[in-house]
Amino acid sequence: MAKDTLTLAATGRRKTSVARVRMTEGSGTITVNGLESDKYFNTALQQELLKKPFETAGVAGKHDIIASVKGGGKAGQCGAVVHAVARALAASDDEMKDVLKKAGFLTRDARMKERKKPGQPGARKRFQFSKR
Fold first, then answer.
1. Running DSSP on this structure, what letter comes out for residue 5?
2. Distances (CA, A) of 34 to 65, 90, 124
3. CATH number of the domain that 73 lies in?
4. Which of 16, 29, 79, 116 has a 20 to 30 Å separation from 127 between CA atoms?
């Protein structure tokens, strides 16, 4: 990698997934865990979600992304990559930061699975009550 190209790193989280992203100036390729993004994230919805931060910031096709994701499922991993990409874009330019923040990409979605409680079958579910 040449020294004159700008390289930014960022971390994104969603559910139990953690994504580390390295962003460089380039042609717009996205690599996730060594695979192309459309091979790693199969659904069209996830592929569209990956492109949203770039379209919102108005820099589609100008940056290459190398992402390393672990933990959780595909949906959480996709959300973590989107969060990390948005944070990397925000670090590159203050004007982009305002746009991305207004669109909600810089907010970490903190919703997690609720833990199972003792004495019941699930997080909220109870065993059937019997009066007699």
1. S
2. 11, 24, 39
3. 3.30.230.10
4. 16
Q: CA 64, 86, 109, 34: dihedral to nearest 10 degrees?
A: 10
Q: How far is CA 91 from CA 7, 32, 62, 65, in A?
A: 11, 21, 15, 14
Tell me how far apart the alpha carbons of residues 125 and 4 are, in angstroms, rounded to a whole number: 57
SS3 at position 7: strand
pLDDT in tens, the chain (132 residues): 444 567 899 999 999 999 999 999 999 999 999 999 999 999 999 999 999 999 999 998 899 999 999 999 999 999 999 999 999 999 988 889 999 999 999 999 999 999 999 999 999 999 999 998
The CA distance from 80 to 86, in Å, is: 10
Cα four-point dihedral sign 93, 10, 29, 51: negative
Amino acid at 25: E
Task: Give the number of domains in the chain.
Answer: 1
Domain range for 48: 7-103
In a domain, 25, yes or no: yes
**Is 62 within the bounds of a domain?**
yes
Is there a domain that residue 132 lies in?
A: no
